[in-house]
Specification:
The structure holds two protein chains of two kinds.
Chain A lengths: L1 H12 L6 H17 L5 E7 L4 H9 L4 E4 L3 E5 L6 E4 L1 H8 L4 H25 L5 E6 L5 H13 L4 E6 L4
Parallel strand pairs in A: 2-5, 5-6
Antiparallel strand pairs in A: 2-3, 3-4
Helix pairs in contact in A: 4-5, 5-6
Chain B lengths: L1 H16 L17 E2 L9 E5 L3 E4 L2 E5 L1 H4 L7 H21 L7 E6 L5 H13 L4 E8 L2
Parallel strand pairs in B: 1-6, 2-5, 5-6
Antiparallel strand pairs in B: 2-3, 3-4
Chain lengths: 168, 142
C-alpha cells in the first residue's frame, strides 16, 4: 500500500513543466520588441530659422555676445567687454607631435572647460542676456559648432544662433 | 530547454527596458550624428539628412554635395523644390485628418563631419521655403 503511494508520488514529481506555450509567447514578443527597441537616444537642439531681419536688429541693439570659431581658437566678443581668446589647439598639436590620444582628449576637455568657464563668467555678469551668436568659418566642422552650443547652453545661454564669418 | 529559457528571459527583460512606446526618430543611413548634452525630445517634423556625400529629405535622395562645389548660390534649388512638395503633401494629409502637422518645423540630421558652408546653405534654403523652426538632431549623452 505504502509502496504504491510512493510510486504515484514519483510519477507526479517527475513530470516535465509545460513550457512550450511560454516559448511561443517569447518567440513572438522578442522580434516585436527588437523592432521597437531604441539603442541610440536622439534629442534635438531648437533654433530659429535663418533670414529673420528682426533677430539681427535685436542683436545690434543688445549685448551682442558672439563666439567666433577658428581652427586654433575660440574668440568671445561682445559689446563693452574685452575680447577673450581661448586656445583650442592643444588637442590637435599634441596629436601632431605624436603623443597619445588620451593626452589630447584631456587637453581638449580642458580647452572646452575654459570656454565654458569664460561663458559662465560673462553670463553671470550680464544675466539679462540669454543669446549667443556662434560665428563659424565655411570649413568649420559641424561637431565643433555643437560643442560650442553645448558649452553656451550649460553656461546659461540657451538662445544660440549660427552665423558665417564675415557676415554682419 | 531550461538554459534557452534563461537566455530568452534575459533578452526579453533587456528589450522591455529599451522599449519606447512613442514614435521615435532614427538617424538616416550614412549619417553619424554629433553627440550633445541636449535633453529635448524630437517632435514630428520634416527630416532633412546631410550625409558626407548627399542631401536627403526623409528617405528620398535630393542632391549630391559635389553639386555645391560648382555653385556659389545659397539657395539649393533641388532641396527647395523637394521641401515644397513635402510641405504640400503634409498640408493635404493634415487637411483630410483635421490635424495640425507642425508644418513649420524641420529637423536637420547632419553628419558630424560636414562643413558649416553646407549646413548654412541647407538652413538658408529651409528658411527661404518658409519653415520657421529648425532643430538639429544629436545623439543624447548624459
Amino acid at each position: 500500500m505504502a509502496r504504491r503511494r510512493l510510486r504515484r508520488f514519483r510519477e507526479i514529481v517527475e513530470s516535465d513543466l509545460e513550457i512550450l506555450p511560454l516559448m511561443n509567447l517569447f518567440v513572438v514578443l522578442i522580434p516585436m520588441l527588437l523592432l521597437s527597441a531604441v539603442f541610440l537616444e536622439l534629442s534635438v537642439i531648437h533654433m530659429a530659422a535663418p533670414g529673420g531681419d528682426e533677430q539681427a536688429e535685436v542683436e545690434k541693439e543688445s549685448f551682442d555676445l558672439a563666439v567666433h570659431i577658428s581652427e586654433t581658437s575660440w574668440e568671445i566678443r561682445a559689446r563693452n567687454i574685452e575680447t577673450r581668446v581661448i586656445s583650442r589647439t592643444e588637442a590637435g598639436m599634441v596629436e601632431a607631435d605624436g603623443s597619445d590620444g588620451m593626452t589630447s582628449a584631456i587637453d581638449f576637455a580642458t580647452a572646452v572647460g575654459r570656454l565654458h568657464a569664460a561663458l559662465i563668467e560673462i553670463a553671470v555678469d550680464h544675466p539679462e542676456n540669454k543669446a549667443v551668436r556662434i560665428v563659424s568659418q565655411p570649413d568649420t566642422i559641424y561637431e565643433d559648432i555643437i560643442e560650442v552650443m553645448d558649452a553656451s547652453r550649460a553656461a546659461g545661454l540657451p538662445e544660440a544662433s549660427l552665423q558665417a564669418a564675415g557676415q554682419s | 530547454m531550461t538554459s534557452m529559457m534563461d537566455i530568452l528571459v534575459v533578452l526579453l527583460l533587456f528589450l522591455i527596458k529599451s522599449f519606447v512606446a512613442d514614435e521615435q526618430m532614427n538617424p538616416a543611413a550614412g549619417v553619424t550624428l554629433p553627440e550633445s548634452t541636449s535633453q529635448e525630445r524630437p517632435e514630428d517634423s520634416v527630416v532633412v539628412a546631410i550625409t558626407d556625400s548627399s542631401i536627403l529629405v526623409g528617405e528620398d535622395w535630393v542632391m549630391d554635395l559635389t553639386a555645391l562645389d560648382d555653385s556659389e548660390e545659397m539657395l539649393l534649388i533641388p532641396l527647395a523644390d523637394h521641401l515644397r512638395d513635402v510641405r504640400s503633401v503634409r498640408e493635404d494629409i493634415a487637411r483630410l485628418q483635421g490635424e495640425d502637422p507642425n508644418l513649420g518645423r524641420v529637423t536637420i540630421q547632419g553628419d558630424r563631419e560636414i562643413e558649416f558652408a553646407v549646413l548654412q546653405r541647407v538652413m538658408y534654403t529651409i528658411g527661404a521655403e518658409g519653415f520657421e523652426e529648425v532643430s538639429l538632431a544629436v545623439i543624447r549623452t548624459t
